[in-house]
Every structure is written in C-alpha cells, then in structure tokens.
C-alpha cells in the first residue's frame, strides 16, 4: 500500500484520502496522532531509561515509545550509533556527537530494524531481512512517500515516521 505524508497528514495514495494527522506539542518531543474525526489514536514520545543520565547525550539511554489512547505501549524503538561512530569502540568524538543511523523497533511484540540511509530515506526491515516499510522524501514537491508491504494500521505508520524524525533530530548539530 502506498501513502503520502504531507504537512503532518497521512493520506492513502489512491484515491487521495486522509487517514490520520500528527500534531506536535509546543515544547518537547511529544507528538499526538489523531484520526481525521479528531479522535486521539496514539502518542509518541521520548523517554530516558535512566533519568539520572538524561543530560549525558548518550542515545543508548533513550527509548522512543508509541502508546495508544489507553496509555498502553504498542510500539517502541531504541536508537543506536552508526558503525564507526559507536563510543564504546572509537571513543567519544571531541567536536561533535556520534552519528545515529538506526533503531531497533518492536511493534506489537515483533522486532524490526529501522535504518536511516540518509536524511531523506528510511527503511524498516523485519527479522527475516525483508523490507516491510519504506519512507522517502519527495524532494521539491515536499512531503513523504510511504510504501507499506506489511499492512500496518495508520497510527503505526505515523509512529514509525515520527521515530524517523527522532533519529534525524539525534544528528542535528548540538549548540552549547
């Protein structure tokens, strides 16, 4: 199934019909996913596994979570450093943060690997190494094309898209 995300709205590609809407919080990483009838479907957020290390900047202490409107976890992701940037192997860089390029995702108990190929292309791979979701930026036209080969519900697709944006934010230049 092919979808388009434009201005925070998930559209079914043919016919162009809106399925869900992502709304950002004024402050912080929290995002809410609503149905077109304005019913809260789920909430995406970033949490720290150990609050005492929240200011360390280490992404291995972060978890992206997607909860339904009953506050039950339906999806989570643990970001990881790119090969050649893992601080356990090469140490902490002096002038920048290590690059994040993937996250281990669990959707309803099933494990996947979300990979950022570049800031405009992402893929979700299942345990059998098959691509089940692809997210690609549309360049000048704006928006994103989403190809779903697994049959995810709209709020899961929006949640994984939000996780992609979280990974991208991990790589933004840190100003001190």
Identify the notable features of this structure and list them briefly:
mainly beta; globular; 176 residues; single chain
Enumerate the spans where pLDDT stays under 50 for 5 or more consecutive residues: none
Instruction: Indicate the overall shape.
Output: globular
Strand order of the largest sheet: 1-2-3-4-5-6-7-8-9-10-11-12
Portion of residues within helices: 10-25%
| Helix and strand sequence | EEEEEEEHEEEEEH
SS class: mainly beta
What composes the largest sheet? 12 strands, antiparallel, barrel
Q: What is the beta-strand fraction?
A: over 45%
Give your account of this protein's structure.
This protein has helices at residues 87-90, 154-170; strands at residues 2-6, 9-12, 17-24, 31-35, 40-48, 62-68, 73-81, 100-107, 110-118, 121-126, 131-137, 144-148. The chain is mainly beta. A twelve-stranded antiparallel β-barrel has the order 1-2-3-4-5-6-7-8-9-10-11-12. A hairpin with a 2-residue loop joins strand 1 and strand 2 (9-12). It is globular. The N and C termini lie far apart (43 Å).
């Amino acid at each position: 199934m092919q979808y388009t995300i434009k201005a925070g709205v998930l559209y079914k590609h043919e016919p162009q019909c809106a399925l869900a809407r992502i709304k950002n919080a004024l402050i912080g990483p929290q995002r809410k996913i609503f149905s077109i009838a304005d019913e809260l479907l789920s909430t995406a957020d970033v949490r720290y596994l150990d609050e005492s290390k929240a200011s360390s900047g280490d992404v291995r202490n972060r978890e992206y979570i997607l909860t339904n409107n009953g506050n039950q976890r339906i999806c989570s992701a643990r970001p990881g450093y790119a090969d050649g940037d893992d601080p356990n192997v090469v140490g902490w860089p002096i002038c920048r943060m290590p690059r994040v390029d993937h996250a281990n995702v669990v959707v309803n108990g099933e494990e996947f690997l979300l990979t950022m190929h570049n800031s405009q292309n992402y893929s979700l791979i299942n345990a059998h190494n098959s691509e089940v979701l692809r997210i690609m930026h549309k360049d000048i036209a704006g928006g994103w094309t989403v190809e779903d080969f697994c049959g995810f519900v709209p709020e899961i697709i929006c949640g994984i898209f939000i996780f992609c944006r979280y990974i991208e934010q991990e790589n933004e230049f840190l100003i001190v």
